[in-house]
Amino acid sequence: MRHARLARGVVCVIAAAGLFATSGCGAVLGTAGPAAGSRNRIQVWALQDPQNQPVIEAGIRAYNRSAIIGAELLTYVNDAYKQKLQVSMGSPNPPDVFFNWGGGNLAQFVRAGNVVDLTTRLERDPNANIFLDSVMKVGQVDGRQYGLPMNGIQPVVLFYNKKVFADARVKPPTTFDELLSLVDIFKDRDITPIALPGAQGWTELMYLEYLLDRVGGPEKFAAIAADKPDAWRDPAVLRALTMCQDLAKRGAFGKNFASINYDNTGASRLFATGKAAMFLMGSWEYSSQASNNPEFVRSGNLGWVPFPKVDGGAGDPKNVVGNPSNYFSVTSRSSHRDAAVNFVVSMVTSKEYISALIDAGQVPAVKGVDKQLATSANADFATFTYRMVADAKAFTQSWDQALSPSVASELLTNLQKLFLSDISPQQFVTAMEKAK
Amino acid sequence: MSARSQRPGFGWAAPATVFFVAFGILPIAIVAYLSLTRWNGLGSPEWAGLENWRALPDDPDALNGIKVTFLLTLLCWLIQTPVSLLLGVWSAGRQRSRAILSTVFFLPLLLSTTAIALTWLSFLDPNFGLAASLGGSSLLSSPHQALYAVAFVIAWQFVPFHTLLYQAAARQIPTSMYEDAELAGANTLRQFFAITLPQLRNTIIASSVLIVVGSLTYFESILLLTGGGPGTATRVLPLHMYIKGFVGFDMGFASALAVLLVAVGTLLSVLIVRSTGYYRMASDREGFL
């Protein structure tokens, strides 16, 4: 019975492995406790970002020089950060200060009672009132201020490749119809008219955000964000959705857009190398191009215009969409609440911090900062961005940040299906009405 | 079969059992509870009764996820089983060249899933990858082809493991059986079907169970290769569960999907094991033919 002996051997090995694993586990548990995190400092959580991180680090160093309770920075990559933040907020061990996107993302933490209300603190401190109102508004929930802008404004801009446009003897579009005829022209020249990293739904969302604003005005999305009945069923929403789908069907994004990724800079490279003529992206694309394809920016071939207007549309063509800013907020469970509030207010409103943001190529959401921008390294683009936002009647926040995470993830899934014509605009509306 | 008296007592299995209860059974029980609640990870879960379960048939992505999962499982089995069976039997031979080539075939086994997925992702990149130089159109951007691309990459990763199983099993087949067959005038093909295949029966079942149950929970490569796209063409059930739970933070619904996965996985493996008689663990070695 060789077989039985073999079976016994296997069981022994499994049992031994079990023993080993339990003892190993015990050892880890025994030592890991006290080493974790020095909590006599203010813990600041933010995104890993080569542009922003040095600015925050310098701000923290400056603050720590005179502070009794110093601060320390911990950074994470985007998706991992969102998960870690959500989980830690529900745990007894949240950060003291956390990076967020304002809007619906911040609101769910506020509603769960996790965030400190900064309103009275700001009222007592007139020096803190330096930010653009449209940007401050996104850091508010139910009229109270919970977040302060901690980096630059990031409106969505239509970038274009000047060389490709010059070769085709065409000008950047000012109306949607011009955009459509440009699509046909570039298609004939075997150039992808618009680079679209459609593997990530948020890049497709930018079209819907702008088109709905141009067609129906900012009130249409405001109604959706406020969860008004039939807000998704509005004719303007349906028209904007149809326009998005038509763009994709017309071949505006080429054939392979569904597998192009933004994070690995695939779309940016397509655009910089002239394989695509235009690119609708957040203003951060400028600095990303400057570091990834420096020759493209230096040669002056990177051009930019606001999103074209839609003839007969109700929305003001000066309106912008995008990320008004990112925010710092303080958790209510923090063991250094007052110190953390002080830290946030004093750091983000300090002259040095704002200058450092500008030097890093950002456009801070600060009133009257344009004079300072005019002398900065990327003066043209920075001034354009600032004017665009300062002149806008409405700055609609990216929908995936403004809505709750569960609705936002449904939105992005359905948008990807819409662009691939897996579903019709009507089916999109029906699906979104069910999302909650 | 007088093995009963020789069996080791329960004490031997105790450490493994404790481990399995703590990290296997308990989490499943917690997830089953969470599937009856509304929870976004903040605060405490709110009792919701059967709400999540009732919403399940209404979610087109969940239904699509079930379909894609089964399709992928089938594809994985259809690709991996014949390829690794043939490779395994071939590499069980003692010729010198085979050892060297087998080593090459086993290489993917040493690579991490992430490395494999990222490598194939850049090969298949529609604009800058190998696929672009070879003809332009990309497997990954077509909703009809993306799943095949995914199944291929998974096969590339796991065929070596199953080949190893078959190689080991094929080497256990007594050479006397082949010698007998040779004397009786059976050619190589006949020997393969009359001796090798029946002798590998239990290995085929074991490998199939691993492939089927493995495919049901397959996730990382798909997340990295396609993110479930284009659209939802490759969004298998585990990936849908991840997106619901950790992107949408709808933990209740995600838990319902998780329970569904556990149930389907258990059911399928029990079905395979029962229907094939594998559970009797009967040896059919020697005395055949």
Would you mind describing this structure in some detail?
- The complex is a heterodimer of chains A (436) and B (289).
- Chain A is of the alpha/beta class and 436 residues long.
- Helices cover 52% and strands 13% of the residues of chain A.
- Chain A is built from 21 helices and 13 strands.
- Chain A has helices at 2-35, 53-66, 78-89, 103-111, 119-123, 133-138, 162-167, 176-188, 201-216, 219-225, 235-249, 266-272, 284-292, 294-298, 337-348, 351-359, 370-374, 379-391, 399-402, 405-419, 425-434, and strands at 42-47, 71-76, 97-100, 140-141, 144-145, 148-149, 154-161, 192-195, 276-282, 302-305, 320-323, 327-330, 395-397.
- In chain A, helix 2 links the parallel strand 1 and strand 2.
- In chain A, helix 9 (201-216) packs across helix 11 and helix 9 (201-216) packs across helix 20 (405-419).
- The termini of chain A are far apart.
- Chain B is mostly helical and 289 residues long.
- Chain B has a single domain, classed as MetI-like (MetI-like fold).
- In chain B, 67% of the residues lie in helices and 1% in strands.
- In chain B, strand 1 and strand 2 form a beta hairpin.
- The longest helix of chain B has 32 residues, at 60-91.
- The mean pLDDT of chain B is 87.
- Classes of the chains: A alpha/beta (436), B mainly alpha (289).
- At the A-B interface, helix 1, helix 3, helix 12 and helix 20 of A face helix 1 and helix 12 of B.
Quick one: CATH class of chain B?
Answer: Mainly Alpha
**How many helices of chain B in DSSP terms?**
13
* CATH 2nd-level architecture of the largest domain in chain A: 3-Layer(aba) Sandwich
CATH topology of the largest domain in chain A: D-Maltodextrin-Binding Protein, domain 2
Percent in helix of chain B? 55-70%
CATH overall fold name of chain B: MetI-like fold
Distance between the termini of chain A: 61 Å
**Superfamily (CATH H level) name of chain B:** MetI-like
Radius of gyration of chain B: 23 Å
Low confidence ranges of chain B: none
Strand content of chain A: 5-15%
- How many domain modules of chain A? 2
Q: Over the alpha carbons, how many angstroms does the gyration radius of chain A reach?
A: 25 Å
Strand content of the residues of chain B, in percent? under 5%
CATH class descriptor name of the largest domain in chain A:
Alpha Beta
CATH architect. name of chain B: Orthogonal Bundle
> Biggest sheet of chain B, in brief?
2 strands, antiparallel
The dominant shape of chain A is globular
Largest pleated sheet of chain A: 6 strands, mixed
Assembly context of the chains = heterodimer
